[in-house]
């Protein structure tokens, strides 16, 4: 042990600052969050130095988890919110991936003005999310929004997009697809460019049709890129707070787990930190389970990752 | 099995000025023949092969396979199989899947694919590796898989684009012999592209030499070596390269340093009116002679010992300039560095004369 330290102390000294920073910024808040889920902490009983009030919250064991997992509406109807979150997540990621792949395929050939298209298609990603969210919010405005004006002009029904109906969920999915596609496109374009051209030629000589070349050369060639970006996309979308909250606000029809945690934390009569933290821990566990299952499935396919 | 013909086939790449990568190539390859396309990089040899494969457009002229015009037929319809320089194996498929892919696309029954793949694998000594992915194979094994993929198809023409250039020297020589033997056995028409003239000479029934998109000469290896059609072919074929020097010519013969090499009547007639010719002689047609005899004075600058023989590089004065010559001598008694030796033409029938400007061969 002493010899070990003697030999490697320099490396450990170099790593130490990062370890400290991560511990302070990530591990400590995480541990505190988990601790809160076992208490009844809220605005009324948290320590408040301004009012010179000491903390008076107490441990409640697993009560928060039991309340949330019961699916009770007063605790955010966890199960139906989870289902909505999954619809939102997989809906978004599915369209991100398919549209992104389509655009990447179009951009991966020799077309005039390819650089211009590329810049234009990356734009949604470069614009700060809240700006595009507000722009879309106005476009979805039931009376004055351009979308409904166009729909009226061609004689189609003009729903109240961001009202108390599932149209609101549809609308936020549309916006998030628009926002998230460029990332997929850029990542997949990189993947496409890493597929050697002679594989396509070999497949052509082997007698493959364009569809077969796509199926047997392009898709396998994209597999490692795809698996990474799809997992990232799922994690990001699962926790995509700004799009939903900025466009639809605290609308129960667009409520996903993370927006409910936010609502519980910052609004309501007694800002319920305990339940919000419980939601946070549950979100983390869902994603952990998902990532583990996903990686295991990939490994079974022989993917080195 | 099929014959292949290029009929004034050209490939022109747009640009300013347009590049004629392959320029009016006319070439007939007989059924079962092994034809090698050889040339330096940028000579259009790979483009010519890719035109035959259908991977490159034919801008002018036509290409026929088995008597059928395939100029505008996609690769799929040409009944060809190609071995790529990079092998282009599908990385996510096993060796067996790689080899059987074309048959699978064609809708051949699984059991039949399996039988054919196993047969080809046996021929190429790949049976042990059928379930491996290309990643887990050595360079030589990958090369064999690429060959196997072509064999399994039983195409009418094999196309090979520098298939050995990624192998190390020893394996290359070994594989060279294997490919030639395999082609002999299968009797399939084969077009083989290489930049290595040794490969071309050892493998091809006939060799077509290209330069700047133009066909220079197409003949048997022997004929290319003995009667190169122009100075380029003379310098390209043979290792070490032929000594090619521009020398003055008189009615007696070519004037080298201190010696006049007598030339045949017909050669002198063909050179009629020229003051100078490009004089070509292979290193083995020169020899070192005892100092008393007539010959060119040469200062030895480099001796490359190859074992059986040695290559002596040295400077010879021709006119005012000093020219370098290479002489092949016996490996056991090479001259030493800096030594002055006398060099003479050993075999007068092995003198090649070319026009100093056009490079065309003089004499009938």
UniProtKB/TrEMBL annotation, chain A:
Give the CC-aspect GO terms. plasma membrane
According to the entry, every stretch annotated as the ABC transmembrane type-1 domain falls at 82-294
For the keyword Transmembrane helix, the answer is yes
Q: Where are the annotated coiled coils located?
A: none
Instruction: Give the UniProt keywords, A-Z.
Output: Cell membrane, Membrane, Transmembrane, Transmembrane helix, Transport
Q: Which sequence ranges are marked TM in the entry?
A: 9-31, 86-107, 119-139, 167-189, 229-248, 273-294
Topology within the bilayer: Multi-pass membrane protein
One GO term (biological process): transmembrane transport
Where is this protein found?
Cell membrane
- Identify the InterPro entries for this entry: MetI-like, MetI-like_sf, UgpAE/MalFG_permease
Return the similarity comment. Belongs to the binding-protein-dependent transport system permease family.
Protein name as annotated:
Carbohydrate ABC transporter membrane protein 1, CUT1 family
Which organism was this protein described from?
A: Lentzea xinjiangensis
Q: What taxonomic lineage is listed for the species of origin?
A: Bacteria, Bacillati, Actinomycetota, Actinomycetes, Pseudonocardiales
Automatic annotation (TrEMBL), chain B:
Cellular component terms (Gene Ontology): ATP-binding cassette (ABC) transporter complex, substrate-binding subunit-containing
Q: Which UniProt keywords apply?
A: ATP-binding, Nucleotide-binding, Transport
What residues does the ABC transporter domain cover? 7-237
Record SUPFAM superfamilies: MOP-like (SSF50331), P-loop containing nucleoside triphosphate hydrolases (SSF52540)
Asked whether the keyword Transport is assigned, the reply is yes
Single GO biological process annotation from the record: carbohydrate transport
Q: Does the keyword Manganese apply?
A: no
Which Pfam families does this UniProt record tie to the protein?
Answer: ABC_tran, OB_MalK
* Molecular-function GO terms, alphabetical: ABC-type transporter activity; ATP binding; ATP hydrolysis activity
SMART domains for this protein: AAA
- What name does the UniProt record give this protein? Carbohydrate ABC transporter ATP-binding protein, CUT1 family
Organism for this UniProt entry:
Lentzea xinjiangensis
């Amino acid at each position: 042990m002493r010899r070990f330290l003697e030999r490697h102390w320099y490396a450990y000294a170099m790593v130490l600052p990062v370890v400290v920073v991560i511990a302070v910024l990530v591990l400590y808040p995480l541990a505190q969050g988990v601790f809160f889920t076992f208490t009844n902490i809220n605005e009324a009983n948290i320590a408040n130095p301004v009012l010179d009030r000491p903390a008076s919250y107490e441990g409640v064991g697993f009560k928060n988890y039991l309340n949330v997992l019961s699916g009770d509406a007063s605790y955010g109807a966890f199960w139906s919110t989870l289902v909505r979150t999954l619809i939102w997540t997989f809906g978004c990621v599915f369209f991100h991936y398919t549209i992104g792949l389509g655009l990447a395929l179009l951009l991966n050939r020799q077309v005039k003005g390819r650089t211009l298209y590329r810049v234009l298609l990356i734009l949604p990603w470069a614009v700060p999310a809240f700006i595009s969210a507000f722009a879309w919010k106005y476009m979805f405005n039931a009376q004055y929004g351009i979308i409904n004006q166009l729909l009226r002009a061609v004689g189609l029904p003009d729903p109240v997009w961001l009202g108390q109906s599932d149209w609101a969920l549809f609308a936020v999915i549309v916006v998030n697809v628009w926002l998230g596609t460029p990332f997929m496109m850029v990542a997949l374009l990189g993947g496409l460019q890493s597929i050697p051209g002679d594989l396509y030629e070999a497949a052509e000589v082997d007698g493959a049709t364009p569809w077969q070349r796509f199926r047997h050369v392009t898709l396998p060639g994209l597999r490692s890129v795809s698996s990474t970006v799809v997992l990232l996309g799922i994690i990001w979308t699962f926790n995509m707070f700004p799009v939903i909250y900025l466009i639809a606000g605290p609308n129960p029809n667009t409520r996903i787990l993370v927006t409910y945690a936010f609502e519980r934390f910052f609004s309501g009569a007694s800002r319920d930190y305990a339940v919000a933290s419980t939601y946070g821990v549950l979100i983390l566990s869902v994603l952990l389970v998902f990532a583990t299952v996903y990686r295991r499935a990939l490994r079974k396919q022989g993917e080195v990752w | 099995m099929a014959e292949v013909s290029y009929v004034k086939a050209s490939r022109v790449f747009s640009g300013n000025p347009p590049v004629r990568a392959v320029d009016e190539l006319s070439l007939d390859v007989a059924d079962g023949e092994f034809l090698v396309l050889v040339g330096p990089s940028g000579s259009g040899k790979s483009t010519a092969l890719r035109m035959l494969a259908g991977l490159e457009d034919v801008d002018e002229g036509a290409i026929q396979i088995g008597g059928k015009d395939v100029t505008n037929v996609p690769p799929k319809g040409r009944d060809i199989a190609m071995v790529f320089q990079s092998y282009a194996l599908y990385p996510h498929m096993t060796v067996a899947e790689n080899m059987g892919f074309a048959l699978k696309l064609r809708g051949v029954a699984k059991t039949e694919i399996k039988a054919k793949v196993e047969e080809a694998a046996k021929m190429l000594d790949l049976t042990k590796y059928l379930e491996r992915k290309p990643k887990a194979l050595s360079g030589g094994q990958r090369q064999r898989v690429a060959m196997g993929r072509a064999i399994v198809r039983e195409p009418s023409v094999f196309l090979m684009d520098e298939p050995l250039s990624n192998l190390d020297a020893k394996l290359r020589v070994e594989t060279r012999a294997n490919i030639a033997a395999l082609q002999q056995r299968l009797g399939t028409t084969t077009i083989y592209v290489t930049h290595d003239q040794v490969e071309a000479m050892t493998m091809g029934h006939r060799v077509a030499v290209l330069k700047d998109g133009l066909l220079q000469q197409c003949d048997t290896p022997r004929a290319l070596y003995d009667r190169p059609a122009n100075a380029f072919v003379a310098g390209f074929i043979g290792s070490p390269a032929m000594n090619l020097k521009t020398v003055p010519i008189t009615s007696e013969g070519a004037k080298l340093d201190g010696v006049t090499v007598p030339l045949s009547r017909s050669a002198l007639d063909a050179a009629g009116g020229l003051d100078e010719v490009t004089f070509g002689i292979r290193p083995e047609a020169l020899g070192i002679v005892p100092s008393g005899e007539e010959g060119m004075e040469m200062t030895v600058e480099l001796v490359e010992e190859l074992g059986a023989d040695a290559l002596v590089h040295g400077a010879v004065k021709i006119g005012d300039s000093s020219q370098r010559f290479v002489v092949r001598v016996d490996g056991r008694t090479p001259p030493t560095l800096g030594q002055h030796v006398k060099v003479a033409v050993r075999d007068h029938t092995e003198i090649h004369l070319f026009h100093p400007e056009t490079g065309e061969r003089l004499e009938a």
